[in-house]
Amino acid sequence: MANLSLSFEEMWEKIIACDRKYDGLFFTAVKTTRIYCRPSCRSKKPKKINVEFYFDLDKVEKAGFRACKRCQPHTDHSPYIRLVQNVVTFLVNHYKEKLVLQDIADHIGISSFYLDRIFKQETAETPRTYLEKIRVDKAAYLLKSTNLTNLEICYETGFQSPSHFYKAFRSLNHCSPSEYRKLSKE
Asked: Where's the HTH araC/xylS-type domain (predicted)?
């Protein structure tokens, strides 16, 4: 599986938010306890300086970390988990591009109908809505960490129109991008 193009700060935000969308794509290893977890683990959060991130289960275990007993990151709960992880990795790495379902299916090597059905069965979302959430996550990160304008962020995160960007952002964050930026600065 290809590595995700997420910064340390973005992965840190995902574990603080207990974001299930990234489960299986990376693992949080705590140097002081020698335990690793899923991003969605509800255990007490470690200090930032004690955290390392791994993209591969074998590498985190070879580094001497043991699996968290609470979130059990070493177990796959579905036979389709690898397929879903590959799709999510592709979406995270290509969110800036104009993607259609067939592009994703071609990359994964299965039919678009089968991909849509399995992905929805496993995540309760379509690849399109999942991609939109990834784009909004990236936009929120950019709003907090850069001085780019809302329009620049709109296009930087792969949205094709500002109206769609504003609608999607408000739907997921319950505020406009400008309001979000203002709240994150307080």
From this structure: 85-183
